Please model this.
Amino acid sequence: MDAMNLSSLFPITDTTWIFFLVLCIILFAPILFTKMRLPHIIGMIFAGLLIGPHGLNILAHDSSFELFGDVGLFYIMFLASLEINMQEMKMAKGGALLLGLTAFIFPLAIGIAANIIVLDYGLAASVLLASMYASHTLIAYPIVARYGLSRLRCVNFAVGGTIVTDTLTLFVLAVIGGMYKGEAGGWFLPLLLVKMVLLTLVIMFVFPRVARYFFRKYNDGIIQYIFVMAMLFLGAGLMELVGMEGILGAFVTGLALNRLIPRSSPLMKHIEFVGNAIFIPYFLIGVGMIINLKVLFGNGNALMVAGVMIAIALFGKWLASLVTQKVYGMSGDERRLMFGLSNAQAAATLAAVLVGYNIILEDGSRLLNDDVLNGTIVLILVTCVVSSIITENSSRKIAVSGEVVEKPVETADKTLISLANPGMVDRLMNLAFMLRKENSKVPLSAVNVVLDEDENQMARGAKILDQASDIAASVNVQLLTKLRLTTNISHGIIHEMKENAYSELIVGFHEKSSPNDFFLGTVLPELLTGLYCQIIMARLTMPINTIRCIHITFPAKTEFEAGFFHWVEQTERLAVGLGCRIMYHGHIDTMNLIRKHIKDTKSRIRAEFYETDGGNDLKRISELVKPDHLLIVVSARRGSISFRPSLDHIFTQIQRNYTGRSILLIYPNGYSIDSDMTEMPPTM
Model:
């Protein structure tokens, strides 16, 4: 076949081969660029450049790339706001605000001046281009997490500052984009701002309430995912309807749903999987296809634009980090770590340049031309590489210097989940996910105990374990399952715990089969006398991600129990994962120790403390526990240090005062004759 006939085959128009080539790029580009130690985002863009009209012309930038590109752009902004840790943002407070404002104002001010004076751009183009310098993406955050530095204040400042800079950048972008969508009269800008603020308030107020109702009513993962996607595009569409850019609506929708989609939940894994597998790569490849390197290297103006963009972006972020360091008295390594985390340009930068590139002026030119588009790719490449290198070096120095706040824990918690009710499997599994340590490599275990020779129960138990395995696989957590035959349910669970040295047991509340049935059934009392490990008995009347507040009540002297710090840390993880308040009700001595623990570990929870005499407080706080709250009752075994007779009335009071409420009943680790006493009680 001659060259003429070969060239006639391209660009490929058959949808089957188009999708095949795109999937090959999505598959192999990350593998190649990981070996080169470059961000995946650059690999996708370069692959699009290679196969696009300005490269080998293998594929045309057709309507499919435009459609998936819009979806991917919204998806990027939605994921960015979902992944923001709102607790860290609140803990950082003034530092995050200072770094965020300075990291936005310095690059913006310097950039506007340079764009007008050096690059000779108009005011609107200069403002939009300068706003691109101000945003940043935390692509280097995994490096910090790997070194155990995620709780350093400089890291919290950088994480919180991301919300400030990206929100302000999107605001500028939405205003400028909105100005070119309507008639820019005298009242246009004020009305545009009013409409944007009102719509933002509607999204932040209405969307979470609708989502909370929906998640409580429907547990199916696919239905929940489709619902979230519908909310995403509803928010984007409404923002476009009032004259703003849809990406701002996508970002605000993510912030509104942030608390309802915990990072450890199967729903979050589904959202990340679909976005990272299809929509976002498609968008990045489409960006690469519209890049023309001939423009970049064909004239000196394009290179000058790229140089100005890189210089201002790096200098502005460095200056912001310096100011924050001086105000808060930080070390040089902390300043460099803030600078490393806050100078990478990616998601919001791409969004801004594409919006400006797609705005056509009256004379037929673009608001942001090809020089800016190509310079943006160079900017992303340089800042991502610089960010990764500086963050790596600074993290290593801080770790070696002994300034690490988050020290690794050597103890491994082995949790067994006893599953019996098919309707509670997903809720118990989600509870276990949120209680376990983040990035733990220890697998979870699930058991279904059935009586010997009951074939119907064996088939039912196997189905329950398969359901649990599917849920664990959806969040990439290893789950070991076992169907255990026994002549006594409680003995089967006890033997399973002891034979495999599990340190914790999670079970559901007993389902009463008759009015005279004992509230706890016959299993839990036998478990309490046969096991000294922590036992969590759960009754979840709604999906755990819809919980808005946590109440914890505990007896006096519970700090002297072996498992005190274990349940304190677990409930802190739960509050952080849910992004909600945690209200402690207990004796002052115990609460002082919890306060000290929160301060020493720099925990990110919002804690409130209410002093009691350390007795049974369930009746007193019953009016405070609302239907969408979670009550955690820390009790004690008979004969333990913190046990008192009033704890025997817990079960009656739960039945009487907490109908329809979600409850965790925790019996902490206790000391036994064969205990290794690895966790000693604190000295007061």
Q: What stands out?
A: The CA atoms of residues 287 and 394 lie 32 Å apart. The chain has three domains: 3-401, 413-532, 541-684.
